[in-house]
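hey so i finally got around to running both of the ones u sent me last week. sorry it took forever, my laptop kept dying halfway thru and i had to restart like 3 times lol. anyway pasting them below in the order u listed, first the sequence line then the structure token line for each. didnt double check formatting much so if smth looks off just lmk and ill redo it

first one:
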Amino acid sequence: MSLSLRKLLQNPSLRLRLVVGGEDPATLELTLDREFEWLHATDMIDPTPFLGPAEVILTLGWQFPVTRSADPSVPEVRVPQERLERIYEDYASLIAAHGVIGVGFGSDVLHQGIPPQLAAACRRHGLILFDVPYEISFMDLLQEAARVLQRDQTERYTRSLRAQKAIANAATRRDGLSATLRETARQLGCGVALYDPLGRPVTLVEAPDGPRVTAAELTPIVQRALESNQRFISTQVTPEVEAVLQMLGEPGEPSGMLALTLSRGFDDVSRNVLSSVLALVSVSLQQNQALATLHTTLREALLQLVLSGNVAVTRHLVESVWGPLPTPPLATLVGIPQHFNAERIMPAFESLQASADFPVFFAQYRGDAAVLVREADAERLLAQLAPFGLVIGRSRAERWEGLELALDEAKRAADFGLRRGAGPEGLVTGFTELWREGVSDLIDASDAAHIARRLLGALASQDAEQGTELLPTLRTWLRHHGRPLPASRELDVHRHTLAHRLAQIAELTGSDLDDFEVRAELAIALRYLQ
């Protein structure tokens, strides 16, 4: 609840007159709508210790010298013009600094009219000044202010109930969630956007009027909020529009994000309505999430059914629920999410499949996302998967019987791509790339480095402490396939020195350097030692 001078000045029975604050037509509307808490009647020269931060003062002017008396019983005083102006200047400066909105001056009670020095001081300090005529008492004004607040409270309560009823009715429609968001935008006069747990827009409703923002401006803000697990955030998108974001669900397991774009602040009614909207949308998303969980479980079971050889049964079930099942030869993809777990990716894939104009099937596979598509459609699908930030492994299945092997190959390729490092938009690694890189690249780099340090650590310590060159000697000798003469030439040492070093290496590592398998292990260990 709040008061504004417009609500008081518009009452013809009060006959209030705006004296200062409306000279500039461009600012008149803002002046009249400035809100304040209450009217405080006081004639103190310094009333600020007894005032709130945003109030209006009512005064008869007893704190000022009476230079033009309206009451014959009150003697007039003569004050130099400069001193008189200073008195009003100090008063206006004091109350303006405290946050007072304005002054209502009771004219023709003590002073004739309103002292011009007071009007000038109020104008300089941005204070509103209005005339309260002789016939209107301050009590009349206070009673009217109380009635205004009561009417305002009743109006807000009625408006809140009306808005909540309209939104609740929208929620019962066939397209309940979308209808709820559209009605919210209409009732609150703002833009409304619903995002999924990955930060992708699901429903966008523009503000009915005023400045607007695009999805391209809003989406990065939503994604950052989801990545940082922020439940609530308010931020300026453009100089004219503020975005208010509210996470739906729990941090770490969000069901989405509701975003409101506002060109003006929220009042109490809007906040009450928003609370109802959040409850309705949360319930709707929980229902959708429960359905999505069932779909995820069903898809995983259908994938296992295909792998067991029941393709015909799987095709019938998939086509009856989602649409055609892709046919071999298949591009077999396994995606490892970089930012979210696979459970959060699966519901987003549902909308991807619905929008695709070619057959696609996806399911969870070993904790990751498996996607099957005809080879002819693979590139188009990969382009649609790019925004998900997946590290993708790719293989090929000529027939359904080879799907299990293809999935295993795609999974290995994805793991390899993850170790190799993916860019911000993900990475696609074909299984055929693995053997071209070499068998040693299939080794988990972290495990190999640990074993390499255990195997060659003694040599590294000896080189560091004694100044020997056992590791460079071993590397050079292996590169020359164990031939002493070219190795000693490259090292620029006598072959007897090389033989002595090799004996030290064999002793420190406990290895038989004449064994080919031992040499191969040492070569791989040297590769991963760094």
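and the second one:
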Amino acid sequence: MLNARRPNPLPARPSRRGLLAGAGALVVAFRLDPKSARAASGPNLADVKAQPNAFVRIGADDTVTVVIKHLDMGQGNTTGLATILADELGADWAKVRTEFAPADATLYNNSLMGPIQGTGGSTAVANSWFQLRKAGAAAREMLMAEAAFRWKVPVSQITVAEGVVRHEPSGRQARFGELAASAASLPVPSEPRLKDPSEWRLIGRMIPRLDSVAKTDGTAIYSLDIRRPNQVTAVVARAPRFGATVKSFDAAAARTVAGVLDVVQVPTGVAVIARDTWSAMKGREALTVAWDDSTAETRSSDAILAEYRERAKGPGLTASERGDPQAALKGAAKVVEAEFTFPYLAHAAMEPLNATIERAADGGYDVYAGFQFQTVEQATMAAILGVTSDRVRLHSNWAGGSFGRRATPTADYLAEAAAVFKASGEKAPVHLVWTREDDMAGGYYRPTVLHKVRAGIDGKGAVVGWDHVMVGKSIMIGSPFEAMIVKNGIDSTTVEGASDTPYALPAYRFGVHNGREGVPVLWWRSVGHTHTAHVMEVMIDELAHAADVDSVAYRLSLLTQAPRLSGVLKLAADKAGWANKPQDQGRGLGVAVHESFGSYVAMVADVTAQDGAIRVNRIVAAVDVGVPVNPDVIRAQVEGAVGFALSAVLRNRITLKDGRVQEHNFDAYEPTRMSEMPRVEVHIVPSQVAPTGIGEPGVPVLGPAIANAVFAATGRRLRSLPLDLSGVKGA
């Protein structure tokens, strides 16, 4: 059993039999049928199908192990998911442990993604809420039934709390571990009684995270920590331009470097295999590689953006349309026109990409990594290694961040690990390591995007028309997910947050052009909302100013059909003291509100902007995520979103010069410093609606809130990201 405080660096290979019928353990869980997953997000559980599964094990030592089907990249979902099950079960939190699930989509699929196992889109809690509650409730009822049988009393007189089953009238009680083995033989209840919220003792409370101690004392095992017997390390020399291929290479000098064992060509470049990481890196430096750039992207960022501006002159594919905005704009009292640009962005997670792969004694393969799309990753590696998917066993480790980077539709770095291992002759376990420079310059990126908007108001300040066009490369076109996500040439992840705007705009059109450059792009924390929210919220602010109406009041007038958005907007404004704006020169408040991934977030930014510098003093956030499973984790995620996004708002960008990435490390792509981190206040709306996610929704609103605050402080409108600090000089 995995102890969450002292993880085993070499986890045992789980088998379905061991998970389902471990000796002396009660094992229960439920699977949501993908077809009923959406319906299950509401209170009606009639269509949730019970099937044998493996989410909870109760050991003879009273430990309760919750099997986590999602990757924890620092967002705390191991604690959140364990909380849901443990509360329904009535477990003692001090006895709760977690372990990551093996790759098996028949047991551990993400019901909001369909028939695949994966983590993303802030869905971990949302898709597991009723699944884990039912699993915990079923286990509780089985323990109660066993106790009632032993004590010859009605089950209605049995209670469960803090890991103890009690019969209050007789004073008898038993610990979970005393009942688990016998209870495991009982039928699994198909419709166990779920607790009323008034009975919750863990959900909604600030309880300690299960991973805090191990991550503090260094005993938590990340994939970068994995050391298998006789393990070797590989690094890959990849093309400096995207789309280039190996023309020829000379490995003679590399092979003379101490510690270098082999040099092999793989589809992504040339791999140097050595006894350790340093030797592999030095061997790579000694390589001579000639690259074929005939199919490579060779343009600079400015050239790509220039092409975007030309394409934006046309209407593009229609993603959303109502009324006739062109006609409406002709009769508008005032028209605001604006262009917004957004650069490529790296994910820049603290732990660079890496994975370890070895051949097992049974002829299968064991792989150790932070797996985010297990079904895709397992199938991709199996195809490269020439075996069926079940012969590739995935052992999930903690991941030091991702922000979307580990969840590629092509399973890129894991495919590369399998290719290197195969090319090496499979003689020893291979640990593929990407350096920081590899990770930052090797793709994938948040797409670069351009938006052009024309919006008009009448003489009373009401919006009469909004014509909007954007250009940006689709993440999904050309990927295995295209058929599911792209409709009529429109990638929903490109247009989300604008094509479905909640603002009551009577005449509105949103058109999109799909970019065609050769730069690999990928979802970046909050995906399309990273740019659409910024454009919508800055433009709404501009219209409020043009109408001479308070920007909070103006938003509320357009959100009469969006009560939860209005709710967080009012709460954030109230807690920030919006009615009492700062009078200091060069200081202002800005606001933004947005829905993403089913969650509602508003932020008010208190900013000082003077002499070419922007200082964010305070961020006040209000969030509505349904039931707040763990308020402390929610606050931490919003605080983390501010820290993560702030550097992208103020300075970060990935740029190309003649097709080559210019930013290779944190010196040129600087993360947020502790010294510039604002004070962050997070206010959570109480709710009994099924919970949604919070890993991503804190990101989209930060940029527009700060940009709008800069305008309030200086009277100068900064639209594009990162904000051009020269625009606040002399303010």
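quick thing i noticed on the 2nd:
Residues 124-151 form the longest helix (28 residues).
anyway thats it, ttyl
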